Amino acid sequence: SMMTEELKTYTAQEPQIHFGTGGWRAIISEGFTQLNVQRVAQALAARIISQGVADKPVVIGYDQRFLSPEFAWWSAQVLAANGIHVHLIDRPAPTPMIMWTVKDLGCAYGMAITASHNPAIYNGIKVFTAGGRDAEVEITTPLQDAANALGAGDIKLIELSEAQAAGLISTQTSMNWYIDSILDSVDVEAIRHAHLKIVLDPMFGVSRTCLQTILMTARCDVETIHERRDTLFGGRLPSPSSKTLHALANEVLERGAAMGIATDGDADRLGVIDNTGKFLHPNEILVLLYEYLLEEKGWHGPVVRNLATTHLLDRVARAHGEQCYEVPVGFKWVSSKMAEHDAIIGGESSGGLTVKGHIAGKDGVYAGTLLVEMVAKKGKHLSEIYADIVAKYGQLEMIETDYGFTMERKAQLLEQIYERHDLPEFAQAVDHVSYLDGCKVYFADDSWVVIRFSGTEPLLRVFAESATYEQAQGIIEQVVAYYQLA
């Protein structure tokens, strides 16, 4: 029944290639087909040749989804046929590891076959550029247009055996370089002496080997659940949230573990269960880590968050004489703003974050390791460390909701909200309104609400944050009633 429900929700899109905020994602066999994937690979090859960077390898990696390895090889076949060397990571790999490899090998481009945390019927492609960053829209739009213009006859192909014999495709199955880069950037010694018990939940995705190896190298006692390959992700969304991590919470309590770490389908985002079995929201993780870098590690610098992420970060920044920068949704905005202002951490309420000096993209493996280091160094329970934060900076509660819609309803909402700027009469005093990405209303009391269309799924998202859960709920109810969303 989950599948039929899903198909009803995710109504058929144009079976054309379209890159959104998280790469191109489409339903397998509808838009995500061998032909369309090879059109993207051919368009990328043409771009590489026209830019004169065909002498550098292209890194290709893939996740645990249905047909991901096959799609990766089919892409490699096209690039090789165009005379471009492919460095294929031939085992399911975290997206951050693929990005790291692009940076490490000095490549101009890389790609990952992944639909991240989308439902199981999806697959997708993320494209990376030099330095291992998410490709900007200035690259993905021309790429998608070029791909959409190609016919089946325009795609160059070479037999895989021939490509490998010619040295055009080389494979890597080791994760050691990436694992070592993370071990080199954390205090392994501190973790080793804390003897922590950690439970991992890769959500049938790709993080198990990396996180397990890193934590066991640091002598943690590691227990793993949901580690096999299941292309249906156990019938759940491979997205860490309070709803999807009940099994992890139970396991943490049962084993008396220090924490549980879950990563989404491609391990660029994380979800955490604290020692009391409570889900720690990505907002809370960001605040914990930012304060840890400033206070304990003695780092200096601003923080970057997207507009749907907690304003508690602004309070931490202010308390330390630092700045908090707000950007639109889409991680590439976070990484470019971080580079611009030399920020030390940046992230989103959806669970993606990155720390200066690692990669310019989300990395759930690195973030999880850093969190373990923090607990080891502070010698306190995770729940106590967060209680200290609240005592210091106060509390903000955030509520995230989303609503499906028909195409005609979407057109009406777009016109009403973004063109006519027709907003509800809120109970709170409005300070100002921004249309940077969707619509964000800032209230005078530090509360806010965001109304925007998702860039990865056909949903209207409404997020609100306020001093209490009830106040945030009240703001959302006003929006829902006004636009008749429910």
Blueprint (SSEs and pairs):
Blueprint: H1 2-9, E1 19-20, E2 23-27, H2 34-50, E3 58-62, H3 68-81, E4 86-92, H4 95-104, E5 109-113, E6 122-129, E7 133-134, H5 137-148, H6 160-165, E8 169-172, H7 176-184, H8 188-192, E9 197-201, H9 208-217, E10 221-224, H10 246-255, E11 259-263, E12 270-273, E13 279-280, H11 282-295, E14 303-306, H12 312-319, E15 324-327, H13 331-341, E16 345-347, E17 353-355, H14 364-378, H15 382-393, E18 397-403, H16 407-419, E19 430-434, E20 439-443, E21 448-453, E22 460-466, H17 469-483
Parallel strand pairs: 3-4, 3-5, 4-8, 9-10, 9-11, 14-15, 14-16
Antiparallel strand pairs: 1-2, 2-6, 5-6, 6-7, 11-12, 12-13, 16-17, 18-22, 19-20, 20-21, 21-22
Helix pairs in contact: 2-3, 2-5, 7-9, 9-14, 11-12
Search tags:
single chain, 486 residues, alpha/beta, 8-stranded mixed beta sheet, 5-stranded mixed beta sheet, 17 helices, globular
Description:
The chain has 486 residues and is of the alpha/beta class. The protein has 17 helices and 22 strands. Strands 1, 2, 3, 4, 5, 6, 7 and 8 form an eight-stranded mixed sheet that branches. Strands 10-9-11-12-13 form a five-stranded mixed sheet, sandwiched between helices. A five-stranded antiparallel sheet has the order 18-22-21-20-19, covered by helices on one side. Strand 19 (430-434) and strand 20 form a beta hairpin. The chain is globular. The two termini are 22 Å apart. The mean pLDDT is 94.
